[in-house]
Task: structure prediction
Amino acid sequence: MSYDVIVIGAGPAGSTAAIELARQGRRVALVEREEFPRRKVCGEFMSAANIPIFHRLGVEEAWRAHAGPEIRKVALYAGKRMVTAPMPGGESFGRALGRDVLDTLLRDAAKGEGADLHQPCRAVALDHVDGEHEVTLEAAGGESRTLRAPIVIAAHGSWDRTTLPTGLPKNAGTRDLLGFKAYFKDAELADDTMPLLAFPGGYGGIVWADAGRLSLSCCIRAEALDRLRQEHSGTAAEIVHAHLLASCRGVREVLEGAELSGKWLATGSVRPAIRTRYQDGIFRVGNLAGEAHPAIAEGISMAIQSASLLGRELEGIDLHDAALRDAAGQRYSSSWVRRFGPRLQVSRTVAWMASRPHAFGGIAALVEAVPRLLTVGAGLSGKA
Ligand SMILES: Cc1cc2nc3c(=O)[nH]c(=O)nc-3n(C[C@H](O)[C@H](O)[C@H](O)COP(=O)(O)OP(=O)(O)OC[C@H]3O[C@@H](n4cnc5c(N)ncnc54)[C@H](O)[C@@H]3O)c2cc1C
Result:
């Protein structure tokens, strides 16, 4: 099957890219290995900066209809400290929406724009054949099919093992972060507040998402989890849950009387970094292009915004012309760094401080004395 563009992965980055390219009149294949709706390790908060993009993508109304309450306050829960401050901005505010709902909305919008959906289908190989890219898919029943196109947009995320050359090596080092996520019901948290959780070895966040679900997500260093395993028994998620309760007063207060809703989810290595964004007709978007520490809750935004940025760079270009493709790839790469580089830097600082409560103690005390520092930090991370 022949296309202009093959997009691998229908997360926020892939579906956004598919919408943008299909609107340009391109023949787009969108490949997703999972059935939707599906849950995902993610805090699910999206800042107000995405609203104009949701509008452009045609999903703003549905997003507003489904998403949880407006988040007007940012908070820091570190040890015994619980500090709250206003979210920057002032006119419109971010909200959280479950990835089961959001990703389905965006995928359906891509389909509505004419993208050809291959789901559930796993991309298992990516080869260069006669000047084009050939992507081999394996459908759920084991049936195999081959797609060809002059360009590929790799949007398959960065956390899973893959046979694709666009994936990351799965080295699972002790410095790697492991991600966890759960929903709770009947929790005690103000509707409009999103606390950052600081605890030894990691960081996390809690926020009300859609349908009365409290979303709790966190990252912990593999080496910190290994140390905890020596003191506690249970699954990794149970150990992390117990660690959060023991080390963070805010988590205890929020979850007292709350009930776990569904299972804990976990994901392998989360490795925040800037990566190759373009090479030989293959464009990377979302987490594959670069990933901030989830401490700043900007990954979905960066996924959507990077795919939109790429869509603009490819507009009107003959995708069979290698020189034009390469030039677009260079422009996309540079714009990516200008746009998201500062957010990655802020996320590194926040993550470093949050996961070291001893070093962080003085800063947390300062934030308690001057809560507006939280507002400034949220603004620097992309919330303004
Ligand atoms: C603990 C935690 C909390 C977070 N909280 C937030 C938050 O509150 N707000 C925020 O903005 N971000 C948050 N993030 C980050 C956010 O989840 C990611 O940045 C975002 O999911 C990246 O989107 P993506 O489209 O690049 O990749 P993904 O969302 O990972 O999507 C990739 C898609 O590709 C599919 N796929 C994978 N391999 C293949 C294949 N071979 N063939 C076909 N399909 C394939 C997958 O099934 C998936 O649907 C958090 C992350 C973690 C770990």
Summary: Residues 322-354 form the longest helix (33 residues). Residues 5-38+99-170+272-349 form a domain with the FAD/NAD(P)-binding domain fold (CATH 3.50.50.60). The mean pLDDT is 95. The first strand starts at residue 5 and ends at 8.
